RNA sequence: GGCGCCUUCGUCUAGCGGCCUAGGACACUGGGUUUUCAUCCCAGGAAUCGCGGGUUCGAUUCCCGCAGGCGUCACCA
């Protein structure tokens, strides 16, 4: 059986894009599933558009997602170099070949390939037979007047030389394919197999745009999406697990991958489901691991072992790691209350009896706190929910918090009593107007 | 405009001629558990399968038109 080799060929013209990751995922999975090799090649022949540092960022983002490559600009390989700007000599040599065969000619400083005489047809791996009339494949530039090859020319030469067996790319390349096939034919080279997966769409159903859509992989990291979750989500766009599973690892994706389960229609990149998936992954992550990755989303000097104590309290409350800060900051920062937040007219009573109950707790643990507070609630006939809301407000200054008794255990008796006292004095001062 | 690709609940999708009075997931709504929020557990609404013709005993599934959407028409990739 022929050797399977796939590739992703990003241009270092900016940040790492979800579309790049999406395509990388399919190529990676197809290669791995079929015992093949996955290659990354940099297409940097447009000198003006190259951006400093983009190469590094793209590679870093892909490996953050857990995608690995067998050959590439950083790791090297038998077909080195993997950067088109370093392969200029190769292209020059190949142009000569076409010039000699009289299949290409010079025109205004550039070199053009003569268009196709025949209709161009190929059997697309994902879409079936696709035909373009010969009239659509006119003469086109293969070497620019600055001496650099155009995209079409460099792609074909590199894919051939790097023995790429399956060219799997986005559907926006469908109309490029006839020209590239014409090039293969001009050289007399064997055609690779082509497969065109759908492009990701924005809410407007147009292809993802830098302006309107969240497409920078770095942003996802900053927002606190786990790479495993993002990958999982991406896998679900245009592809579905044969058993209908929604949550699975990249390894499982590879095991189950096949091109015939790839849909043709372009999916809308709607991150609502990503949030759910991310939550699922957060809940599956161990506390220790979660602490490590949450740390970079916490501002302030919060020790790791402290985070380890509170992380279980918010684990099932977070969809994104970036929410940790808001959920936890009351632990290391006394809330700035205003009287308005204590809406319950019984707030003061709640606080007074909580104060008494908690002052009397000898051994400060959850069991004793529960017991002390429970007795007070019964005795004073408080409504449990209301009572705890007042307490929650006193501790955290907000209505949405981790479980409050557990939180108080961690906060410590002194701090808890201190906050109750402060909250009380705010209420007292409010309820004692000047008339007094 | 030419050429090409695509078209199932709001979104992601299953479906490859009868099992579909179209299944699942997210989101949404209602309920239960619960000290808030979540988690978890039930229940529910939600697609006349873009439209019109065929083929067939029978079409979401096959064929042909049309419409709409998207892509592409660079010395960008």
Automatic annotation (TrEMBL):
Q: How does it assemble?
A: Monomer.
Identify the domain of life: Bacteria
| Protein name in UniProt | Glutamate--tRNA ligase
Per UniProt, subcellular location reads as: Cytoplasm
Q: Where is this motif: 'HIGH' region?
A: 10-20
Keywords from the named record: Aminoacyl-tRNA synthetase, ATP-binding, Cytoplasm, Ligase, Nucleotide-binding, Protein biosynthesis
PANTHER family, per database record: GLUTAMATE--TRNA LIGASE, GLUTAMATE--TRNA LIGASE, MITOCHONDRIAL-RELATED
Identify the residues that bind ATP: 210
Question: Which terms under GO biological process does the entry name?
Answer: glutamyl-tRNA aminoacylation
Q: Which family does it belong to?
A: Belongs to the class-I aminoacyl-tRNA synthetase family. Glutamate--tRNA ligase type 1 subfamily.
The EC number(s) this enzyme carries? 6.1.1.17
Q: Which residues form the Glutamyl/glutaminyl-tRNA synthetase class Ib catalytic domain?
A: 3-108, 117-276
Native organism: Candidatus Blackburnbacteria bacterium RIFCSPLOWO2_01_FULL_40_20
| Entry GO CC | cytosol
């Amino acid at each position: 059986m022929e050797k399977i080799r796939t590739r992703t060929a990003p241009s270092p013209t900016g940040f790492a894009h979800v579309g790049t990751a999406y395509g990388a995922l399919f190529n990676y999975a197809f290669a791995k599933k079929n015992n093949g090799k996955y290659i990354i090649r940099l297409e940097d022949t447009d000198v003006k558009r190259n951006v400093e540092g983009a190469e590094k960022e793209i590679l870093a983002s892909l490996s953050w997602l857990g995608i690995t490559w067998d050959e590439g600009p950083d790791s090297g390989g038998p077909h080195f170099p993997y950067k088109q700007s370093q392969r200029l000599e190769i292209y020059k040599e190949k142009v000569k070949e076409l010039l000699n065969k009289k299949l290409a000619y010079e025109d205004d400083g550039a070199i053009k390939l003569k268009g196709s005489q025949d209709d161009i047809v190929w059997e697309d791996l994902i879409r079936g037979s696709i035909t373009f009339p010969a009239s659509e494949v006119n003469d086109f530039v293969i070497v620019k007047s600055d001496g650099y090859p155009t995209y079409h020319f460099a792609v074909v030469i590199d894919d051939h030389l790097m023995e790429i067996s399956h060219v799997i790319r986005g559907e926006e390349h469908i109309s490029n394919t006839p020209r590239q096939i014409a090039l293969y034919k001009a050289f007399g080279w064997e055609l690779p197999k082509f497969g065109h997966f759908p492009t990701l769409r924005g809410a407007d159903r147009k292809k993802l745009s830098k302006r309107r859509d969240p497409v920078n992989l770095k942003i996802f990291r900053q927002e606190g999406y786990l790479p495993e979750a993002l990958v999982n989500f991406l896998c679900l766009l245009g592809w579905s697990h044969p058993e209908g599973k929604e949550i699975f690892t990249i390894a499982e994706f590879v095991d189950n991958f096949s091109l015939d389960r790839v849909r043709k229609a372009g999916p809308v990149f709607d991150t609502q489901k990503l949030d759910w998936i991310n939550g699922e992954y957060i809940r599956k992550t161990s506390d220790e691991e979660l602490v490590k990755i949450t740390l970079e989303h916490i501002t302030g000097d919060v020790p790791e072992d402290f985070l380890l104590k509170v992380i279980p309290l918010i684990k099932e409350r977070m969809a994104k790691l970036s929410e940790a800060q808001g959920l936890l900051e009351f632990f290391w920062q006394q809330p700035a209350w205003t009287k308005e937040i204590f809406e319950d007219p019984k707030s003061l009573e709640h606080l007074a009896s909580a104060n008494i109950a908690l002052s009397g707790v000898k051994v400060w643990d959850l069991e004793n706190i529960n017991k002390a507070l429970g007795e007070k609630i019964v005795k004073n006939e408080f409504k449990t929910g209301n009572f705890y809301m007042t307490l929650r407000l006193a501790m955290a200054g907000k209505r949405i918090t981790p479980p409050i008794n557990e939180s108080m255990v961690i906060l410590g008796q002194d701090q808890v009593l201190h906050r109750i006292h402060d909250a009380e004095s705010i209420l007292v001062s409010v309820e004692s107007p000047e008339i007094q």
